[in-house]
Amino acid sequence: MNLELPAIIMESTIKKWPRIAAAGYRFLAAAVLLIFLGWLLGSGWLGFIGLLSLAFFGYFFRDPEREVPADPQAIVAPADGKVVVVEEVQEERFLHAPAQRLCIFMNVFDVHVNRAPVAGAVTEAVHRDGLFKAAWREDACTLNEQTALVLEADGRRVLVVQIAGLLARRIISYVNPGQQLAKGERLGLICFGSRVDLYLPREAEILVKVGDRVQAGSSLVARWP
């Protein structure tokens, strides 16, 4: 009997599975515990809830690889989701200049791992406590809990703001001030529905419009002139 073929199939299948973000393992462990308790207590409902939880958390915390555009002028989406705002604003907290703002809303089924829209150094990383209003509300950008990251490269400054939403109760940052990020590199994660706002200098050419769906690290949202 040829035992190599099943092993090759298994290895190929495992390689196709997306990686799981580290923050998701404790949720997966809790789901496995529910399944075990359901088996131990003879409770089919408890085991069923555990199985559903395991499937949901495994799907929610997926962290697939992305093909990052090689074009140095390309600016990529910092988050998966739907573009809900494209506008010009005056950004006074960090950039102190006119800017173009793109807001990307992530529903609970989107990948929630966020990525750097450009290559650059993290010059500021500021977390601010706040409320947990629905992320699609306009005032969420000023009232909700959030983490702001300023990236600087070639004299340009880009602001990425991770905003907690109604269900999102935790923003997890992967980076620190002074760290150098590659374009498309993972910079953090928000748990359970949220939004990411991207502020770009006015000279950037916006390539998306409200209603477009984008993927973090791979979808072009703007270009440098």
| Percent helix | 10-25%
CATH topology of the largest domain, what is it called?
Answer: Glucose Permease (Domain IIA)
Mean of all residue-level pLDDT scores: 86
End-to-end Cα distance, whole Å, is 62 Å
Which band does the percent of strand residues land in? 35-45%
Order of helices and strands: HEHHEEEEEEHEEEEEEEEE
Query: Which structural class fits the helix and strand makeup?
Result: alpha+beta
Number of domains: 2
Catalogue the unreliable spans.
5-15
CATH superfamily of the largest domain: Glucose Permease (Domain IIA)
Radius of gyration: 20 Å
**Can you tell me the CATH class of the largest domain?**
Mainly Beta
Q: Report the count of strand segments.
A: 16
Q: How many alpha or pi helices?
A: 4
* Shape-level CATH architecture of the largest domain: Distorted Sandwich
Shape: elongated
User: How many strands, what sense, and barrel or not for the largest sheet?
Assistant: 8 strands, antiparallel
In the sheet with the most strands, the strands line up as 11-7-8-9-13-5-4-15
